[in-house]
Amino acid sequence: MIPQSFIQDLLNRVDIVDVVGKYVQLKKGGANLMGLCPFHNEKSPSFTVSPTKQFYHCFGCGAHGTAIGFLIEYSGLGFVEAVKDLAQGVGMTVPDNDDKIPPAQRAEYQAKSMALSDAMSAACDFYRQHLRSAPNAVDYLKRRGLTGEVAAKFGLGYSPDNWDSLRQVFPDYEATALVESGLVIDRTDEEGNNRKRYDRFRDRIMFPIRNTKGQVIGFGGRVLDSGEPKYLNSPETPLFQKGSELYGLFEARQAIRDAGYVLVTEGYMDVVALAQLGFPQAVATLGTACTPTHVHKLLRQTDHVVFSFDGDRAGRKAARRALDACLPHATDNKVIKFLFLPQEHDPDSFVREMGAEAFERQIHDAMPLSQFLLNEVTAEADLSTSEGRARAQYDAKPLMQLMPPSSLRLQIVRGLAQLTQSTPNEIESLFELAKPIASARRAPPRSNRPPPVGLERQIIRLLVAHPAFASELDDAALDAVAHFAPDRAEMLARLITASHAMGEQANFATLAEHLREGGEDFESLIAEIAAESESETEAARLELAGAIRQTKMKTLKEELDQLAATGLGNDDARNRYRELMQKQEQLRREAEAEMNSR
């Protein structure tokens, strides 16, 4: 886990304007900067970036967060990846388990990684340049209906039909990085000695594969004729793991947000052709089965995923593997569907023959995950017999065990129970499902508890906006707010503890990032503060002092009323009553003095 102190230091060094400005065109708008929101369609700018708060907020869709949150939402990076990306930009090293690696070894690894990345980038430029002077390759792309514009968008290139064309761009053709990046192959004899080195890709249309940062990490090469293999992919390298990457995801990120879903296809050409035909939200797996990592990466971009497969046996087999990969991520707020095209069509040919509207209908009517799962487990079972129903349950058990407890799982359990003449409770018991929910009552999520109101809300809100104020609270103030309702007192305690831990450098952005990891209790307050114009620190300090004073007055009055109700029958009670009255009078004087000073 990355220490909170490192996150705080990172956010203090990073300027969110620089981070967001790489992806969004920002213009000055008062104290903030404004631009078109990258997370939803809009014609008038409603997306603001506050240099003071180091926070972004969209008044249109409500998106908001720190520089870390922006990278997570925009680039689809995980939290750790986003932190490492920002840290690299400001020369910081993220402390993690790699700290046990000696500095010299770590430096060697980083240099090696940089050499591989540089080699892939140089090769990509080389292939792109050679496409312009390869009429046979250009003719092939034109026959496939692709324009120069879409070829440029995806960085398509051509690898010349020579054994060592890359010598033109790599004078040191014997460099280790060329083999380790998969660009060249070392042929060895029977004794393991090198005999000759040659280019891996020759006479092929080249599809560069990019990671979420846009860096080239691998290639797919397609033959121009009927040669074999039809597609040749880069091997697994330190930069490139097929089970983790998706072709076209970098190029499709904004289109996925615009469309509201991602379309997963089976090949490079499907992605490029669909972008040409008006479906730029398409991506593809890289010559391998869909993995849980692929699904996780897709669900970072959108809550709606549609897998498109050919309707033949191979397509059904691929769809089944995709189903297995999706089940651990199948929750109530995600929509996962499976589209099966007629056997004679792939997405490209279907759109060209049937039209974009027909393809849109196919996507809309795609089979939901729940239906596909039930179809799969009952397809070869005779449900009119006990043996057939038992077999369907046997096939369904390992699939259901992959799913997290959710309403969706319960719906599938009910569907299977109906098909197999069982009850949902029997299915859950038989399948040994984690956290059965068919009969159990689930506690409401923590974030559903009532939000703070009145003085409690005002104080918590001011301390979120100005965490440095927490260090200014005296013992009397802390004692007063300790009488909040239990839930609010807990929120306040978390808030004060986090602010104190951050010290003098505490600010809204770092505190908001810290609170985000702890749940949604503070989410509405953070969104509200992010949407506000800048506030004067001194005015906020006075507002907090006034709210604390009112809280103290309220606490004093409650104790005074309790003492009065006892009749003040002894000296201790009477002395305490006089003491409280004096404190109450002191607070009134402080309030009057503050009013007169304004």
Explained architecture:
Monomer. Interacts with DnaB. Its EC number is 2.7.7.101. The chain is of the alpha+beta class. It has 5 domains: 4-99, Zinc finger, CHC2-typedomain (DNA Primase, Chain A, Alpha-Beta Complex), CATH 3.90.580; 103-233, Alpha-Beta Complex (DNA primase DNAg catalytic core, N-terminal domain); 249-365, 3-Layer(aba) Sandwich (Dna Topoisomerase Vi A Subunit, Chain: A, domain 2); 375-431, Pheromone ER-1 (Up-down Bundle), CATH 1.20.50.20; 450-597, DNAb Helicase, Chain A. The chain has 25 helices and 16 strands. It has a 5-stranded antiparallel beta sheet with strand order 1-2-3-4-5. It is globular and about 105 Å long. Mean pLDDT is 86; it is low at 440-450.
Quick recap:
It catalyses: ssDNA + n NTP = ssDNA/pppN(pN)n-1 hybrid + (n-1) diphosphate. The protein is of the alpha+beta class.
- Number of helix segments? 25
Outline type? globular
The radius of gyration is: 31 Å
Q: What would the CATH topology of the largest domain be?
A: DNAb Helicase, Chain A
Percentage beta strand: 5-15%
The domain tally reads: 5
The CATH class label of the largest domain is Mainly Alpha
Oligomer: single chain
Structural class: alpha+beta
Pfam family, one: DnaG_DnaB_bind
Catalytic activity: ssDNA + n NTP = ssDNA/pppN(pN)n-1 hybrid + (n-1) diphosphate
Subunit structure: Monomer. Interacts with DnaB.
InterPro entries: DNA_helicase_N/primase_C, DNA_primase_core_N_sf, DNA_primase_DnaB-bd, DNA_primase_DnaG, DNA_primase_DnaG_DnaB-bd_dom, DNA_primase_Znf_CHC2, DnaG_bac, DNAG_N
